[in-house]
Amino acid sequence: MIRLLNVSRHFQRGPDVVRALDHVTLTIPDGRFAALMGPSGSGKSTLLNLLSGIDRPDEGEVEVAGRRLTGLSEDELAAWRARHVGLVFQFYNLIPVLSARENVELPLLLTDLRGPERRRRAEVALEVVGLVQERFDQLPGTLSGGEQQRVAIARAIVTDPDLIVADEPTGDLDAQSADAVLALLSELNREFHKAIVLVTHDLRALRWVDEVHHLDKGRLLAGDEALRASETLEQALGTARRHAKVKP
Amino acid sequence: MNYRTLVSRNFSRGRLRTVLTAASIMLSIFLACAVLTLPSGLAALVERVTSGSRVLVHNKAGLSYMMPYSYLQKVRAVPGVTAATSFSWFGGIYDEPKNLFPNFAIDADAVGDIWAEFQIDPQAIADFRRYRDGALVGYQTMRKFRWKIGDRVTLRSTIWPVDLDFRIVGVLPEPHGNPMWFLFSRTYMEEALRAKGLSADFAGMIWVRVDDPANVGTVMRRIDDLFRNSDAETASETEKSFFESFMSSLSGLSNVILAVGFLVVAAVVVITANTCSMAIRERAPEIAILKALGFRRFTILGLLLTETLTLALGSGVIGAVAAYGVLKLLAALGATGARPGLGPLSMFLVTPWHVLEGILLSLVVGVVAGVVPSWGAARKPVAEALREVF
Amino acid sequence: MSRAIPLSYSLRSVFQRRTRALLTVVVMALVVLAVTVMLSLVSGIRRTLVATGEADNLIIIRKGATNDGSSMLPIEAYRAVAYFPGIASGADGEPLVSPEMVIQPFFYRPDGGRENVLVRGVRPVAFAVHRNVHIGKGRAPRSSSGEAAVGRAVAARYAVRLGGDVRFGRRVWKVVGILEAGGSSFESEVWVDVNDLWNDANRSIYNGLRVKVAPGSDPQVLVRRVAADPRWTLEAKPEIDYYREQADSANFLFRLTLALGLIMGIGASFGAMNTMFAAVKSRTAEIGTLRALGFSRRSILISFVTEALAIALAGFAVGVLMAIATTLGINALMKGVAINLMTFTTATVDLRVSATSALQVLLLATLLGLAGGFLPARHAARLSPVEALRRR
Whole-model pTM? Predict the structure, then answer.
């Protein structure tokens, strides 16, 4: 379970203070596939950073999977992330000089597992995400965008984390690859019971996620505002939603 | 795949940049090694050629003031003195003035005792005693003019109006003999000078062999006491101290060259730091991702520093070893007389110890150059790092 | 029609990535500093020695001697040579021939170190023959009075004062004058009356003669006459040639400096190349735009080479200033650098950054800039506009 209580975060941008998040309270139950949506600068990435233990709030409490993150130091957060969170970014995910398999092995360096075991788990993860065997030893530069994101997802699950967090994973992909990635994430959520929080602009995600949270100017939209936001999106999408539900 | 893979794979990136930086470091450590030899090189030279049992007696006022020849007998009578010989600069030229080598008139009977460690062939010593016109020549001078034992050579003195004809009876052999000296019998010179109506009653210097190095201080005092308040007061000093004072005036020059060497190292630190910061800046996204994945900042610092240190150390080893090889080669060429102009280069005596110093220096370069950019990149909190990248 | 890229663009671009450019300038400056200091030492030695020689003087020493300390000249030779034709005469009608004895007594530095200093026993005519040597302060030593005129560098190095005493040889001398000779090696000598020196050294000889050639006379006539004389084996040489030969140590040092400059320079140009390649890489899109706008390959090449040159020249400027400061500092603190002359005596050399040295280093810096900038510039020029613009 993810719980954020009255969380605020601001940044110094030159002479101005930017309020990235303004007293946000949010709870996401176990095992859900959730999306954070909103216009640019609405604070969705900041929120994602807070609940994945990458950043610390200036005010408020963050609790994930029963662990209180707010009091932890930078190094303690790092250790927690390594064990409990899988991360997927929009680009720069993979280290260019390591092969697909080696990239997936990377988080396992932080565990006690030995070489052969690490290798095996990496291969299992790659199979789960559906990458063909021939590609295992290839460098990211020779893989397509969609394949690279699969590898990134494989890396995100290889440590068997409680939570997978993805910041605009489909942003750089074409329509077909984007759909494939979203389908993969959905499968991980349903079959393997991974909680997933997605930050995205991509309207296609609405078809796959369990719940959507809207942000605007650092505030979490609720009640009427949220409803209106959803309706706008649905209209934009223009098709009936199957799985998406809006939390009032 | 392990941490080592991460470090080694990164070298394949920016290959040109790595090669250029490595080349800079190699060259600079090469130079630094050569320069580092200077202070100890001069000291080592002194250690190598001096004996703890030899003392030099000269006029207190200066070497060119000379002493009466009669001093030699008196010195030989001093308790503790096992052998003594006069040693007078002849200033003779063989072919061209610039090919000057040091030549001295000495007492033929004492040469084997005074310079016992030269290990001169006993036959040569016997011949030297037997033949008035005999000469003992250092191995480098022999090689330079391609002389052989039995050759006749003529030296034209510049300070005396005499030319002398010699027969080479022996060599001051490698490795312990003095490489340059040309020694001949004083009696021979005395005859020639007398024929010109000049007095030969002088000794430029007197070399003395003392029975025990521990007695050297006492013997020196006894000798100087003998001649105190005379027309030619003496100052005795150990062979080591004599050579050291010879070298001491070179210290100013040596310091300038050392300072230049320091500048060389400073320059390469700056070059490496520049490269390092460029490389790290280029990998900012990757470093951010590693941090996000849970790698500690300390680990990242370690990774980055290891890369810089590997580069610096690797290049430094090559540069230091090259310095060893090249300078040894040059010195050998200079010694054989093939290229006498390189002779002074033999003062850059690179020993394995200097190679080690050079390698350590490259390590320091790596740390100093790498630490600032690496520290900065590693220290940054992960959220900030990600924000800068995305 | 190819337009040239404006110079201001090139210059501004260089310093866009300030840290990187600055670091490269620092490297260049360090190379310039090192090479300039060494060159100033070389030119200091050469200047000191060459300045010592006077155009219309000859030195007469024993044939084959390399210096007047290692030579001997019979008194009869002196008397004969003095009346050779072609020699200038002094105000009193006497020939300007200066017979000199040279010896190298020990002098002790204030820190206790011992060095040989060249002491020259002269007759009063010496000051007329050596016109470049003046009594800067005080007066010339009188005959047989135990007086000495001490060169300026000697006074500084061995802490000797005008009016004070100095001990060398077998006695104490009174310092009655300070010799000044335009920075030449005479300033590292001590001049005394030759009779006093004969007494002190217990030898009454001359080592050599200095002769002033009569105005309008051909010095070579004298040289030939001296060489041809069967009575003695002497040779006469113009002073300038004589002192130039003494500058051997400078030649070795010069070659060493060249080697050093070359090696350091190569290292530095590698550093510059790194910076320039990185600059090209980060400005790929910009280059693409320029090419698309119609600037030719050549103009791109020239622009980047100009940037490299700008860095090199900036480094040169900084380095030369630092070198000047350093040499001034060394001269003031260490009172110059001591070198061993061929006479086995110590002379002090002032480091001075000469115009020639500065030009030589400027050439080096320019070459380094070109070397460091050329390959990256060529790479930049070869980028195709389409590719360049496509790359992010």
Answer: 0.79
